Amino acid sequence: MGTLIKGKPVADKIKEDIKAEVKELRAKGTIPKLSIIRVGADPGDISYERGALKVMSELDIDVQVNALPENITQEEFVDFLKKVNSDSSVHGILIFRPLPKQLDENVIKYVIDANKDVDCFSPLNVAKVFEGDESGFPPCTPAAVMEMLKYYNVELKGKRAVVIGRSMIVGKPVSMMLLKEHATVTICHSRTQNLPQVASEADVLVVGIGRAKMVNSEYVKDGAVVIDVGINVDEDGKLCGDADTEDCARKASLITPVPGGVGSVTTSVLAKQVIKACKLQTGSC
Ligand SMILES: Nc1nc(=O)c2c([nH]1)NC[C@@H]1CN(c3ccc(C(=O)N[C@@H](CCC(=O)O)C(=O)O)cc3)C=[N+]21
């Protein structure tokens, strides 16, 4: 029976480091501020927003939530984003994705100010993740995965990591970050043949596909570490991951729960990146 590894101690440690930095910034008259841009009311977005608001208020970081209508046009969205870009009181910008289909992410990603882009939307920040350059902003969820692995002393060097999912928010960047730590990385997705077989070769299995409880013990090698990045809402309206936690735990050595796992660390990483952005913009680093 595997051990559930929770996000809370990892998040607490990250928050502890940030607290002093916020104090220092505030003493100099700078109020760190995050601007969230949400289009519509997707349950995953709402969950992230709720978590983010809680963490930012704990840490005394200002947040502005911009809830834009589901049917907003591309032009209106771009105009709005440009306004947030040029608002000097805002240091970090988080745009929930995926955006509705009338909005072209391939255009918008060039509009967001890379220095305020705390969740790696801008191609400039994406490039840095792929280059292993830590001067930019990695996406918060993959960064949270790496924080979890580090905190729980999971060895990556030379190990076989399998990532299920190839999104720009989770799968692709987390694969590059695992590669940087010298894992041998396989990226799987909905078209992968013999998925359970490939997944069950993993020492570390990272799941981010957005399909509730899809991954069961058939996908898990004995003693593997399972990191569940999925945030889904089940039939009863409860939050659940992409893995069937209980079933996977029969074989896994360590497994992250949902809620209370990676998601709870993501929001702390977000706060950390807002502070990094704030220091960058106010010249205090
Ligand atoms: N650009 C972008 N980046 C994302 O990383 C992103 C996104 N868009 N769109 C939505 C999904 C979903 N997501 C969550 C992150 C944390 C929690 C979280 O804090 N969850 C808490 C529970 C919070 C609550 O519901 O009260 C937990 O798992 O314990 C939830 C969901 C990130 N996503």
From TrEMBL:
**GO CC annotations on file:** cytosol
| Superkingdom of the source species | Bacteria
Would I find Aminoacyl-tRNA synthetase among this entry's keywords? no
Give the signal peptide as a residue range, or say none if absent: none
| GO MF terms, alphabetically ordered | methenyltetrahydrofolate cyclohydrolase activity; methylenetetrahydrofolate dehydrogenase (NADP+) activity
What are the record keywords, sorted? Amino-acid biosynthesis, Histidine biosynthesis, Hydrolase, Methionine biosynthesis, Multifunctional enzyme, NADP, One-carbon metabolism, Oxidoreductase, Purine biosynthesis
Record keywords: Plastid included? Answer: no
Q: What does this protein do?
A: Catalyzes the oxidation of 5,10-methylenetetrahydrofolate to 5,10-methenyltetrahydrofolate and then the hydrolysis of 5,10-methenyltetrahydrofolate to 10-formyltetrahydrofolate.
Which family does the record assign? Belongs to the tetrahydrofolate dehydrogenase/cyclohydrolase family.
Q: What protein name is recorded for this chain?
A: Bifunctional protein FolD
